[in-house]
Structures are given as C-alpha cells and as structure tokens.
Amino acid sequence: MKKTYRILFFAAVANLLLSACTQNLELLPTSVIGNASFWKTEDDARGGMYGMFVNLRTQASRNLFLWGEGRSETVGAGVQGLDGRERYYLNTLDATTAGPEWQGMYTIVHQANLLLKYVPGITFTTEASRNEILAQAYAMRAFVYFTMTKTWGDLPLVTEPTEGFTSESIQKERTSRENIFKQIKDDIDKAMALFPGNSIPAGRYVWSKPSLNALKADVYLWTGKVLNGGNADFTTALAALNEVKTADVTLLDSYASVFDYTNKGNKEILLSVRFQQNEVTDNDFASMYFSAAFVPNDIDAATSAALGVANGNNFWAPTGVFRNQFTADDTRKNVTFTEIYTAASGTRTFYGAFQSKFKGGINAGLRLFLSDYIIYRYADVLLMIAEAKNALGQDPTAEIVQVRTRAYGAAVAAHPFVNGTKAANDEVILKERLLELGLEGKRWWDLVRFGQAFVKVPSLQSRADKPYLLLFPISANTLSLENKVKQNPGY
Questions:
Q1: Phi then psi dihedrals of residue 315, to 5 deg
Q2: Integer angstrom CA distances of residue 400 from 254, 328, 384, 412
C-alpha cells in the first residue's frame, strides 16, 4: 500500500508541479520541498519513473500526433467544423497560433533529469533495478529531445533538474540541433549500456533495449539524411534495426489485430503509450471519428456496422489524397479508415470519412477512445531496414515484400516490388510507410526526412522557396516566458 501511495503521489506531483521548470516560478518552492523529501527509497525512484510516463501519456493524448502528422497530406477537413485544425494541414501556423508548446515536453525532460540526479544515491535491492530506471530516464530524454528537435530545430538544452531560482537555471538560449543530436546519441548509448538484455517488458509500454534500438535507428536515419551524416549513420541505423529483429517481436498475421483494442501490447509492438479506463480520458483520435448527430440516416448496413457506436467528433478526417492511394485489395484500407456515402434519391454520394485504426473500445454502450498510442512497431522497423539498405545501395526487396505480403495476402503477386534506383526505391518505401503507418503520427516527419514535404503536401506544393516551414514556429507565449529564446527564422 505504501508503494502505491508513493507512486500515485509522484504522478500527482508530476502533473501539477513539475511543469514549473519553464513556467510558473511560484510553484518552485513546493517542487523543491517535494524533491528534498521524496527521493529516499527504491519505491520513490520507481514512482518517479512512472510519473515520467504519466506525462508522456499527456503528450501522446494529442500533441505527438499534431507534431508528427497534423501538417501532412493524410488529414484534412471533416464534416463537423474545423476546430482550428486547418492551421496544421494548410500549414498556416504562426507565433500566435503555433500548435502545442514545448513546456509539456520539458516537464518530461525535467522528470528524467530528476531520476538521473537522485537515483544513483538511493539504496536498491539490486543494481539491476537501479540500472533499469536509469536506462528508462536516458531513453526517455533521448526520445523527447528527438521529438522536439525534429519539431523546432535548435533547443534549450537542459540536462539537470530545475530546482533553484536563478535566471541561469530557468532561462537558457537555444543549443544548435547538431549539439542536441550529440546529446540524444549520448543518452541512447548510456541507456543501451544499462539495459541488461534484449527482453521486452510485459505490456510493452516502457522502454526496452529493442525499442531503444528502434529509436536509435530512427535518430541515425534522420541525421544520415537531414544532417548529411551519410553512410556512417545509415550503417549504424541498420545495425540497430538488425538487433531489433533478434527480440521477441514479429509481424502479426493480421493487420487488424495490431490495432485490436483487446490485443494491446501484442508482439508487433515495441513501445506504445498505455491508455487505460479510469486513468485518463479519451485521446485525440476521438476527433477523427463521428458524433451521432452528424451520421446520415441513409448509410448502408456495412458502413453502419463499421461505425458501430458513434462518438467523438469529425473535426478532421483522412483526406482523399491519402485514401485514394489504397487499392481495394489492401487489407490495411478498411482498418485505417471508413468512408461514408449517402444514397439520397438513389445516388451514391460521398459524405465523409473517419479513422478506424484507433477507435478504442465500448463500455456500457459508450465508445471510449483509449487505444494505445504506438511509438514503434515491427512493420515500422522493417520499413526502416528497407530505407537504410537502400541508402547504402543494398537491395530492400525482402523487407518491402514482407510488409506487402501481410497487407495483400493472396493478392500480393499483383503488387510486386522490383529493385530500382535509390530514388525510385525511396519513393516506393515512402509510399509503403504511408499505407502501413498512416495516422500513426509519423507522416510529417517521414516527409521531412525523405525531403518530400513540398512535393506531397498540397498546401506546400507552391511554397518550396520557404524551407523554414519544415520547422514549427515558437509560440509567442514561449517567447515571452523564455526571453533568451529567439523565434525560428521565417516566422
């Protein structure tokens, strides 16, 4: 019972107090008192680790998708109004309407920094238990900085918990993204050395060596392409991905079963963010579903069955540009989205679409949007292997065919892959990632990494002379709070 209270206490502290690192200084005295009295036992350390994941879940509830996919070609206007989301896919963000700010992500960094500072001084029953928590902290800090630097570029680099009151500890200038990536890679290496083996914890909602290797590959593919790291980075990425293949992870036989609400933490998952009833409210996938009030009366029985219990809002929806790239024999199509047609006056007319990949579950007749937010899964790993191989001039056929075989089943012969030039193969891999990973919060960053954002996103096709748009603006609120931070050029 004592352990439970400590964990719940820290989760509350994480949500209510630790955001003080970049915002309200009046909360700092309480935070400091909490730190002084809290970090005493192994239970405290484990509670601190779970608190870190509580705040990751807050970011995964909405923000990770907005940063990772909202600006891409996969989402557009729904039937239920805009709710301000058009600023993403129309790419009209500015300092006033900049999207989610980075303060919530820095709260996670702060929690990781607290673990890294205090856990070494706590007595543990085993050294392995201490190392596990330190590994989680290093891995999480690497992931959060990776997410932020892809979003904003240069960042304030904070590697110590913010516990004092000096302007030096609160206000920091931005560090170059090159040095941010050095920190990310160093954190990955430290976490890798601390994980004891290649196993994946039950539930697959905390970091492990296999999920860390997926992150490592993701990082090195990014620096290999975006920061001109070249073959050295691609080689490192491929080696990390091949390590993932040795873990207890596989491509499930059925694409639908990966996202089955009753099949959370399945063996295709490397890392997901757990959403659980009575712990958290609906995540933002509810905003791509349908309110009952907006469902037409004359939809067919199959569409009605696919919709099931209507709930949520159709503020934005899978676009025609996205939907039309699926063929009828692709099993991923009906899992990813559902189209609604009306039949008024005997004419079949397109009405709207909704995401069906993350539609949660039903409880007491109510749809709860509590599908886990997937960070890495094995199909993603296979397509990253194909990408790394192609970058190194190797044949990516095996991995592409493996993903397509699951997608098309007996019809796979109609969708052959023929190894071609690097450019041609990259185009195929990028499209396969669209079909396989669409609406999973990865598309915008895929487009940036492959250099295709100004080609594939309709709202950017006439704006290739404005490369600053590849980064998000920094909000006016953040600029006012952190006076040493300067706006991204162009905004």
A1: -70, -35
A2: 17, 19, 10, 11
**Rounded to an integer, what distance in angstroms lies between the CA atom of residue 401 and that of residue 417?**
7
* pLDDT for the residue numbered 36: 64
Torsion of CA 242, 247, 248, 249, to 10 degrees: -30
Q: What span, in angstroms and rounded, lies between the C-alpha atoms of 441 and 357?
A: 12
Pick the closest to residue 444 from 205, 208, 222, 112 (CA basis).
222
Q: What is the dihedral of CA 94, 100, 101, 102, to 10 degrees?
A: -130
Taking Cα atoms as reference points, which of 22, 7, 53 lies closest to residue 475? 22
Predicted pLDDT at 165: 65
pLDDT of residue 5: 38
Residue 271: pLDDT band (50, 70, 90) is: very high
Cα–Cα distance, 434 to 91 (Å, whole number): 19
Residues sharing a CB contact under 8 Å with residue 178, sequence separation 6 or more, in sequence order:
227
DSSP E strands: which ranges in 155-257? 155-156, 174-175
Nearest-CA neighbor of 432 among 462, 470, 405?
405
- Residue reference for tokens 């600029």: 479
Question: Stretch 342-361: mean pLDDT, rounded?
Answer: 91
Q: How far apart are CA 472 and CA 483, in angstroms?
A: 18
Predicted TM-score (pTM) of the model is 0.93
Picking from 3-17, 142-156, 210-224, 395-409, which range would have the lowest pLDDT averaged per residue?
3-17
Would you give the DSSP letter of residue 442? -
**Residue 429, CA distances (Å) to 99, 308, 380, 449 in order:** 29, 34, 11, 12
Greatest extent of the chain over all pairs of C-alpha atoms, in Å: 75
In terms of Cα–Cα distance, which of 83, 92, 81 is closest to 352? 81
Q: Are 63 and 35 in contact (CB under 8 A)?
A: no
Can you tell me the mean pLDDT for 433-442? 98
Q: What's the pLDDT score for residue 31?
A: 44
Beta bridge partners of 373: 273
**Whole-number Cα distances in Å, 328 to 216, 225, 254, 264, 332:** 35, 33, 16, 27, 10
